[in-house]
Input
Amino acid sequence: MDIKNIKYEISNQDVRKCPETDVPEYAFIGRSNVGKSSLINMLGKSKSLAKTSQKPGKTLLINHFKVDNGAWYVVDLPGYGYAARGKEQREKFAGIIRNYILGRRQLTCLFVLIDIRHSPQKIDLEFLNWLGENSVPFAIVFTKADKLGPVAAQRNVDEYKKVLLESWDELPPVFITSSEKGRGREELLDYIFSINKEISESCEEETEESESGSPEEKN
Ligand code: GTP
Ligand code: MG
Output
């Protein structure tokens, strides 16, 4: 399956002002410059859907993109931990991100992006642990795979998994991507579509049950 259409809808800093919807939402998070906006453009097969930059700190808002006429949403978030922002600004963005992640009922899976070139960083590991403590469903997406050869890329991914298994009983879904080369697009979309299908099937079951009604309800 593929995306039929994707369209920018709205940006804001307040989770309470995000679109009122009843459909699954998939958000992309990670350190500044890791490639969140580029990945969304890659999924949408567009160069200009989400704004990207060589300089970190480009995305400053919660950006909603409507997919397949509103069947689901993609969300581009500001990066975390950008040192040059200063403490006050960093805390402001951490607050925006935290409120979105914990407060957005529609959030179905958070994709946490990790630059494949780097060894596991404390800030990312702490963020992943925080997601676990708060029972936020997430998957890990390694970015910029084109910047390493296949052997080095796989070695770094294996090393990352090893470190994760030191504090987690099982690994989350892991994807290897390159927005530059389109790598991982199909796998990510298959994953999203499979979750969407599960959700719509369980909604259908609920509707059937409520339509047939329990004996108590009929009396
Ligand atoms: P902020 O919004 O600032 O938090 O950054 P971001 O995570 O949205 O990163 P963005 O998509 O703006 O990309 C940052 C830089 O990395 C840009 O110069 C991109 O061209 C580059 N980049 C992103 N993904 C890839 C990739 O897969 N391969 C390569 N070679 N470069 C990439
Ligand atoms: Mg961005």
